[in-house]
Amino acid sequence: MKVTSIGAPQSPIRNAGGANGPGGTGFSDKLSSAIDRVSDQQLAADDKLAQLASGQDVDLHGTMIALEEADITLRTMVTVRDKVVSAYQEIMNMAI
Does this model's pTM top 0.70? Predict the structure, then answer.
């Protein structure tokens, strides 16, 4: 499991350029890595919350920040999903 440090929030969809961006990766690769980052943040926040609930000596502020970052990245990913589905539906409804 990859644990990210608390700091400047990272966008789960950063550099999601064209089909084959400068690094040679496609959209599906970038989407997959963005989903992995969101999942990693969720797991890290869950671990901190579990440590706090079990009574371990955990920084309360750091835990709350990790939970909020995980919530923000998840909401961002849901918004991206909604926009992709909407774009797909528009394309499917286009007259040929």
Answer: no
